């Protein structure tokens, strides 16, 4: 696999992209959470999804769960699909789950470590809502509980992620 095509200029902040399926839950949470946690401004963060059919309005439970941490306002987020320009501009692409890792490798010939691999050296992904709560559309209580738990996990991993990230750049 080829390394990042972007030359690492010491004056530039490393640009990190988080990738999930629809860019409306996990990668969104990681992007906004890291922006808030990186108080020194050492990095720039963005996010994208692998699939266009997920591009839609953000779920209110996701926005509420994100806002509960550091009063982060992600309401203006617009989901976008990962493309070659986004990949070329990234110093590091971080996959939220294994299927995203495979997509990035197969489509762009880039290695993307998992979010939990960077923060905790775990070779596991952050599961998506339909994987854990298949009836999420008709079971809003279970969906909201899973969303809160997942966003909290992503947010709680921020200090370890920021501590370890330079090993992956």
Largest sheet: 3 strands, parallel
| Alpha carbon gyration radius | 15 Å
**Spans with pLDDT under 50 lasting ≥5 residues?**
none
N- to C-terminal separation? 15 Å
Instruction: Using the coordinates shown, work out and report the CATH topology.
Output: Rossmann fold
- Return the string of H and E elements: EHEHHEHHHHH
**Which range best describes the helical content: under 10%, 10-25%, 25-40%, 40-55%, 55-70% or over 70%?**
40-55%
Q: What would CATH call the architecture? A: 3-Layer(aba) Sandwich
Q: Assembly state here?
A: single chain
Overall tally of structural domains? 1
Number of helices, counting only DSSP H or I runs of 4 residues or more: 8
* Approximate shape: globular
**Which percent range describes the beta-strand content?**
5-15%
Report the CATH superfamily: Response regulator
Structural class: mainly alpha
- Name of the CATH first level: Alpha Beta
- The overall average pLDDT, rounded, is 92
How many beta-strand elements?
3
Q: What is the strand arrangement across the widest sheet?
A: 2-1-3
């Amino acid at each position: 696999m080829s390394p990042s095509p972007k030359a690492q200029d010491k004056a530039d902040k490393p640009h990190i992209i988080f990738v999930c399926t629809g860019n409306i839950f996990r990668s969104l949470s990681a992007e906004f959470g890291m922006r808030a946690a990186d108080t020194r401004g050492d990095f720039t963060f963005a996010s994208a999804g692998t699939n266009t059919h997920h591009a839609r309005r953000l779920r209110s439970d996701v926005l509420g769960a994100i806002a509960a941490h550091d009063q982060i306002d992600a309401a203006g987020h617009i989901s976008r699909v990962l493309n070659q320009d986004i990949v070329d501009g990234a110093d590091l692409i971080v996959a939220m789950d294994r299927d995203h890792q495979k997509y990035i490798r197969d489509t762009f010939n880039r290695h993307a470590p998992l979010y939990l691999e960077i923060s905790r050296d775990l070779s596991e992904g952050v599961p998506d809502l339909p994987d854990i709560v298949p009836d999420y559309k008709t079971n809003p209580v279970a969906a909201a509980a899973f969303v809160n738990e997942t966003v909290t996990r992503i947010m709680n991993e921020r200090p370890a992620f920021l501590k370890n990230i330079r090993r992956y750049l």
